[in-house]
Every structure is written in structure tokens, then in C-alpha cells.
Amino acid sequence: MPLNRKNKLLDLAAAKRRGPETRDWQVTQILPSIIDGLLIGFVYGVAAMGLTLIWGVMRVINLGHGATMALGMFCTYFLFSDLAVNPYLGILAVVVLSLLFGFIIYGVALQRVIQAGYLSTLLATFAVNMIIIGVGTALFTTSPRNIDFSAGSITLGPVILQGTRLLAALAAVVITGALYLFLYCTRPGKAIRAVSNNRAAAELMGIPSSYVLALAFGLGTMLAAVAGGLTSTFFPFTILSGATYQLKSFVICVLGGLGNPLGALLGGLFLGGLEGVIPTFMPVSWVPVVEFVLFVLVLVVKPTGLLGAK
Amino acid sequence: MILQVQEVHKRFGGLQALTDVNFEIAPGEIMGLIGPNGAGKTTLFNVINGVYPPTKGQVVFREEKITGLPPYEVARRGLARAHQVVRPLNDLTVRENVMVGACFGRERLSLGKAAQKADEALAKVGLADRAGQLAGSLNVAQKKRLELARALAANPYLLLLDEVLAGLTPSEIVGMMDTLRNIRDEGFTILMIEHVMQAIMSISDRIIVLDYGQLIAAGKPGEVAANPLVIEAYLGDPDMTARLMAE
Q1: How many whole angstroms separate alpha carbon A150 and alpha carbon B105?
Q2: CB pairs under 8 A between A and B
Q3: Residue A91's pLDDT is what?
Q4: How many domains does one find in chain A?
Q5: How far is B198 from chain A (nearest CA, A)?
Q6: pLDDT tens, A285-295?
Q7: Chain B residues bordering chain A (beta-carbon distance below 8 Å)
């Protein structure tokens, strides 16, 4: 704690020192940065929804989340670079493939240990993570790739919006809407919510919980992979890139309240916005520090998340 | 026969919970299951609806062996159960809870039809005005009614009711009895566990008595109440015996 306080004081001092000379620069810079951050925040939100859905329904902490995101990136990349598939069409393919991939992972790695408690499922998903990263490193190496695709840009006053980020944010909104429609207006969605609420009671009411758990894991995996695919349209990546995003997803889930998909989206926007703002008045390397100080603060002050009521 | 329980044994380690239990329920019948505490009544329900497989024996439901099927498969075949310890989905509304019963019970209804069915079931048990509330906010009596509504909404061939009157105040019991009579008059087949003797004696067509995991008596309510074995089984509880004698 003393160290944190000292860091903050240093930050303040640095900001003050820079203040007068950089103020004009800040005014024109801060708005585009925030907007840029918010657009990326939508994608963070989708990724975090995947993590929070799996936790909420299955009580499984999915450590394969980041690796799955990386797979989504590579899938989109290879469809684009080898088959010249438009990345957004490629992401539609990612939706289908990752859903199937999620079912397979559930059947192979999770189904047997789902009753065995948190540690077993945590280790199972960690093993999945290591396998994906090991195979990925062997096949794709760790040299960075990027999808050389431009969707143009839109200029609004001082703000230039990149097309890829706008489309990614739009896709994130559509995905969130679709997820909510699915959860609240369909029978499988109802089954997912019932199992999430009380697995044993739901089973006694006639819901086959193992199918529902597989579906939830498939959906969570899909959300992660799609978020990866969207990210790959504007950031370079390697098979290891997922780790960073996985950590961000954890922060976002805690911010929004674990198990709450809408909270995850809002948490994503918050974190994205923060990432936009911070670099305008302190070095970029401070971003993770601020994020994780926030993470700890939320855990200490309001562990149910900023949106959690209980 | 809707339900045939054949030579069912259930053993938990060194505890013989059920020994050679045999009985049958005909369509439209209301069967009461009574017995002192710890006699194995709830265990018998758990064996019937698939929570535990029996150690030995068969459960046949509508001419199909359901022994060893998981609870959701049993529920899907049209056997719904209202639990003694109520377990609602607390973060869902009352209507949504009942809809789950309708969606995943015998009829496997779509959401729209399930909502309609849920409202009907809630009206039957007198919870219609609570439909929009979260299930967690209900009191015990209301949760018991919710449990009943959820089981009814599945439109089951057989309804297992596990002490739906337990924990209710005398006036709530009177209300619940009216509800149960209405349900009976609709033609549901029911197997019910109850400790409130007056209630079960007046509502059942036949009664079976479990004691230490064995069926010790079966028959019409009057016959069972006069059966010396039954009176002996309840002797540890003089109050209960007196009430039985008074019937």
C-alpha cells in the first residue's frame, strides 16, 4: 500500500510538471483517445462476456480464455491471408468453428471434472491453454502477424474514427444484443439461466444440465474467439497475445460483477475508456498498473463488482 | 398402472433405508405415503424420480422402466415433484420459475405457451399476483405454492408431493388443502407424503405406511388408521397416535 501511494504521488507530480505546456495538446487529444478506447472497449466487453458467462453458468474459471482469443485471431488471419476472405465474413466462420471447438473442449477436458471443484476445472482449462499455446507456437511461431485490411475512416471534427474499430464496436453491440435475446427469449437460453441459478434444482425441473453446460461453454468460447477475431483487424498479434487480453477480461469481469454479461460489456467500455485516457497524461507503461490497482480496489471495496447489487 | 414400484431396496453404506418396497398407483388415484420421521419416505421419492438409483428393484412408470434414469429424463417422461425443501431459482421471477417446469416437463412447450401455462398454474395455486416478483422474495408458504405450481405446469402424468403442508400455519394449511382438492378434482394422479394426518386422511384414496424402510400397511385411510402396526409405529409420538386414533 505505501508503494501504491508513493506511485500515485509521483504520478500527480509528473502530471503537474507537464500540465501547463501540454494542456492545449490534451484537449484535442483526449477526446479522440477516449473514443478510440471506448470502441476497443466494446471488443474487450465481448471477450469478458465469454469469461463471465462460463463462470456464471458453470462456476469454471476458464484459463483457456486468452488462448481461445488467439485462435480466433489466427482463424480470421488465415482465412484473410490464404483464402482472401473478408475478415468480417471470416468472423462468421469463427462463430461456427469456435462453438464446435467449445463443445469439444467441454466434452474432452471439462465434463469429467465439472463436479470435482474449482481447482480441477481450473487446472483442466489451464492444460487446454498450454496445449493451444504449445501447438500454436510450433505451427505459427511467435512472430507477430497482422491483418492488412482497411475499412476506411470517418472524420468527425477533431476525431478520426478508424473503420475497423467502428465495425468491431458495431459487431460487439450486435453480439451483445443477440446474446441477450438468446438468454431471455429462447428455451435453451432459459435453461442456461436456470442452470446458472441452481444447477441441482434445474436438473430436478427436467433440464439436462450437462447439455446446458456444454452449450454455455461453447458460447463462452465463441465470444472469446469472436472478440479475438475482431481484435485482429486492428492490432498485430501472436499466439501468446491472448494472455494480455485474458488478464483484461478478468479485470473487466470483476468490475462488472462476475456472472453478469451486461456488466462485462460496461466494464469493457470503462476499461477501454481508461486505456484511452491514461496515455494522454502519463506514460503508456502505467496503464496496467492503473488497471490492476483498480482491480484490487474493486475487490477490496466492492467485491460483487460495480454493477453487483448483492 | 401409472407407477409400479417393485421390490425396491436402497442402502446407504450401513444404513438400510428401504427394504423390499412394493406398491402400484392407478391413474387418477391419490395415494398418501405416511410414516414416522426417518422412515424413508423422501428416500423413496428420490428413488422414484431418479435422484438415487435403487440398490435393488425396479421403478416402472407408464409401462417403462425408469430405474437409474437421471431426474431430468424422469421429469421429461411426465413425473413432476414438489420438494419438501423448496429450491426455487431465486434470481428468476415467479413466472419464469413456473415456465421452467412447463418448458422442460412432459409437454416441452415453447416459451410463449409455457408463459400461458405458467399463468394458469399460478392462478390455480393462488400466486397469480406474485408472478412478476423474484422467487427469492417469497415467504415459505408462497414458496411451497410456487413449488406446487412448477410441478403442475409440467402437466405431469404423476405428481409427487413431498410435505407441501409442512411449515405452514393452520390457516395456510386450510388454504393449501383447498388448492389440493381442486388439483385432485382436475384428475391428476398424485403420490403425496404428508405429516398432517387430518389432511392426508381426508384427501387420499389409499394410504401406504413406511416404517424403518419397510411398507407395514396399505389400504383405505380408515383401515390404515385402525391398523395396530401403524399405531405401534407412531407410538413413539403419542400426540400423533392420538390424532390417528381420533380419525
Answers
A1: 51
A2: 67
A3: 93
A4: 1
A5: 29
A6: 888 899 899 88
A7: 49, 51, 70-73, 75-76, 80-81, 83, 87-92, 96, 99-101, 103-105, 110-111, 150, 154
Residue A26: predicted pLDDT? 58
- Predicted TM-score (pTM) of this structure: 0.82
Distances (CA, A) of A227 to A176, A230, A241, A274, B27: 12, 5, 13, 19, 55
CA A288 to chain centre: 15
* Residue stretches of chain A with pLDDT short of 50: 1-3, 15, 19-22, 310
- Is position A264 within any domain? yes
The 10 Å Cβ neighbour count of residue B195 is 16
Which three cell numbers mark B37? Answer: 420421521
Q: CB-CB: which of B75, B91, B111 is closest to A206?
A: B75
Query: Which three cell numbers mark B136?
Result: 427469492
Q: Tell me the Ramachandran region of residue B225: left when phi exceeds 0, alpha when psi lies from -120 to 50, beta otherwise.
A: alpha
Q: Would residue A34 count as lying in a domain?
A: yes
Say which residues have a Cβ less than 8 Å from residue B160's Cβ, sequence separation at least 6. B45, B48, B49, B79, B80, B81, B82, B151, B190, B191, B192
Does a structural domain hold residue A188? no
Beta-carbon neighbour count of residue B212 at 10 Å? 15
Task: Report the residue count for chain B.
Answer: 247
Cα(A126)–Cα(A109) distance, integer angstroms = 10
Residue B177 pLDDT level (bands cut at 50, 70, 90): confident
Residues A54 and A276: their CA atoms lie apart, in Å, by 28
A189 domain residue, yes or no: no
Are A204 and B150 an interchain contact pair (Cβ–Cβ within 8 Å)?
A: no
The alpha carbon of residue A46 is apart from the nearest alpha carbon of chain B, in Å, by 23
Nearest CA in chain B to A187: B111
Contacts of A201 in chain B (CB under 8 A): 87-89
**Nearest by CB to A194, which of B73, B100, B111?**
B100
In this prediction the ipTM stands at: 0.77
Restricting to A residues 171-200, those with a Cβ less than 8 Å away from any Cβ of B are 185-187, 190-191, 193-194, 197-198, 200
Q: Which numeric CATH code is attached to B1-76+192-247?
A: 3.40.50.300
What are the tens digits of pLDDT across the range B34-84?
A: 988 888 999 999 999 998 899 999 999 999 999 989 988 998 899 999 888
- In the block, cell 463443445 appears at A103
Question: Using the beta-carbon criterion (under 8 Å), do A204 and B83 form an inter-chain contact?
Answer: yes
* Contacts made by residues B140-143, CB under 8 angstroms, sequence distance 24+: B140/B86, B140/B167, B140/B168, B141/B167, B141/B168, B141/B169, B141/B172, B141/B176, B143/B86, B143/B88
Range of the domain at A154: 28-176+208-301
All cell numbers assigned to A132: 493451444
